[in-house]
Design brief:
Blueprint (H helix, E strand, L loop, with lengths): L3 E7 L17 H9 L3 E7 L5 E9 L3
Antiparallel strand pairs: 1-3, 2-3
């Protein structure tokens, strides 16, 4: 059975509404680098107002 490790990266909550005219861009370069290392976005993490403040990443541990 596989085991996993987790980490988080912070994101600017404005990124989630950038399509509504904002100038903010998501951390695509950082996500591409982490993806090359085997990380996958597992879930957004929100604050008590419901705004996304970070992303939970997961990857399978090396045996």
């Amino acid at each position: 059975m596989p085991s996993y490790e987790y980490r988080t990266i912070e994101v600017d909550s404005d990124v989630m509404i950038a399509g509504l005219g904002g100038e903010v861009t998501p951390p695509v370069e950082q996500l591409n680098e982490l993806g090359a290392e085997g990380w996958h976005v597992a879930a957004p993490l929100t604050d008590k107002t419901g705004e996304t403040v970070s992303l939970l990443l997961q990857r399978e541990r090396e045996p």
